[in-house]
Amino acid sequence: MEQESNLPSIEILMSSYNGEKYIEEQIDTILNQKKVRTHISIRDDGSSDGTISVIKKKVQEYPGRISLYTGDNIGYRKSFLKLLAVAQEANFYGFADQDDYWLDDKCFRGVEALSRIDNKVALYATGVTLTDENLNVTGKTDSWNMPLTVESYFTRQRLAGCTYLFTDMVLELARQYSSLKLPNDQMPDHDFVVGSIAFSCGKVYLDRENRIYHRRHSGSVTSGGMGAMKRLQVEYGLVFKRPHVQSTMAKLLLSKCKSYMDDGTIRFLKTVARCNDSLKNRMALIHYPGMTTGMKSCDFETRVKIITGNY
Fold this sequence. Notes:
12 helices; 39% helix
């Protein structure tokens, strides 16, 4: 693999937890990306299995290319956000799950796309190919019919954070939220923080070529490919057990990133920020132009979340 110093550098952020079964293979796919120089910063979120031992073995195998941080179990949301603060200097940044498998041109495709965007605040994302634990393909996710607007992104986050690559300016803005102290059920996901910044303050590019195999197994947090019951549990939780995540994120963006936004984005985020204050405000958001994600079921769920005051 090429490792010349003039290749684009990419810092990948990974939170691990009891991932000894798959993390070694995932690390290999990240550090063997073509036409880029990759480094991984891993924060282990209090694993009780052999995950840390596996990572330490990979640290020896790849000198200078993996940084390991350990800590108490605080949940993947806060764990990923903490990594924003310790990320090493690079040209581009990204997130990685501990159990996926990346095709070897995943990062370079992202770098090429981001380099064409005329905005310092820029995000690249793809769909994902779903697999079982043995990497047998079971399906795919895509978001090609999703409008690439802040209104659509707040209606439903359909982009997978494990596909994200983003610019150093996105990292700089996101670092302001690396030490959020909110209850776990109200904490925004790390990828929602980064995606919200990109949609609110810059530009987003969606690649139609899936470059990640996304394992689905019993320990998976998300529901893709895990059956109807798992899907219903996750969807119910998003509507009723994750209160005020979107309105809180809107307030955070307005407090720290407002100077990067246009007037239309500011107006929309103010509508989101105050939607839970009254029925009138909730109805105003439900009927706000562009509140669609390209999937009727997701649009309906979001309207339920808004009308019940959980948004």
